[in-house]
Design brief:
By secondary structure, the protein is mainly beta. Helices cover 0% and strands 53% of the residues. The strands form five sheets. A four-stranded antiparallel sheet has the order 1-2-3-4, with no helix packed on it. A hairpin with a 4-residue loop joins strand 19 and strand 20. The protein is globular and about 45 Å long.
Length: 245
């Protein structure tokens, strides 16, 4: 039986907690964001792995890869959102939506039509993403006062019909993108902070992770819990769903 307790590879280079990770679609490279204030690119095909580093000046809380595979969008503790152009090897766009309020989560639609960012105030900012002469341009579209406290995760569904937000208020909220971001449902069941969530490929289900040491599987059309996943002894802070089929 294969030993899964040992890492296949270890990537060293950050001097602070790693808060974000993602992979290029062909798995040729991956990226990481860290509280050390850097975004790093790692070549999966090379033994050393490390390829390049971008300084963000503040702790990075979130980072996502643009569907064009050529840009990474990061959000940091000082409230900055930056677009990193991997071809130009530089920051190509920067904005600060709410002063020094930390950006907690960023999500981009699979069709690259929308970008959303959630912050520590519980506010979610939505921009329409347009191609400009110098690259992507963020056109303000909407703002949601999603929660009264920290918004920990924002995620657009694969069909680009819904936005899910999770919060320190113990809830998950589902917003209808097609109906001017009206609140569709509030999912109640976790007993502590809800840190992360993930949609199924058909956008009909959601998996959530919480400080209450559980993960839950929700059926979105009813708002009910289908499964409770228990077994952790401490907070569950991230979740992923293998739903390729």
């Amino acid at each position: 039986m294969k030993d899964v307790s040992m890492p296949v590879r270890t990537f060293n280079g950050h001097s602070g907690n790693v808060t974000a990770v993602g992979f290029q679609k062909d798995r040729k490279w991956m990226f990481t964001g860290s509280e050390d204030g850097t975004l790093k690119i790692w070549d999966m095909r090379q033994r050393s792995g490390f390829q390049r580093s971008y300084p963000s000046k503040a702790a990075i809380n979130t980072a996502v890869l643009h569907p064009n595979q050529g840009e990474i969008i990061s959000g940091d503790e000082d409230g900055n959102i930056r677009v990193w152009d991997l071809t130009a090897n530089a920051c190509s766009y920067e904005l600060v939506p709410d002063g020094k309020c930390a950006i907690r989560s960023i999500t981009i639609a699979p069709d690259a039509s929308l970008v959303m960012a959630a912050n520590n105030r519980g506010t979610c900012f939505i921009w329409k993403l347009n191609e400009g002469g110098g690259g992507n341009v963020f056109q303000p579209l909407h703002k949601i006062e999603a929660h009264d406290t920290y918004c920990l995760k924002a995620l657009i569904s694969p069909d680009v019909k819904y936005l899910a937000t999770t919060s320190a208020d113990k809830t998950i909220k589902i917003w209808d993108i097609t109906n001017k971001f009206q609140l569709e449902k509030t999912l109640v069941g976790h007993q502590r902070w809800v840190w992360d969530c993930c949609f199924s490929a058909d956008s009909q289900y959601l998996v959530s992770a919480s400080s209450d040491m559980t993960a839950k599987l929700w059926k979105l059309n009813t708002g009910g819990v289908l499964m409770d996943y228990k077994g952790h002894q401490k907070a569950v802070t991230c979740v992923a769903l293998n739903d390729n089929n």
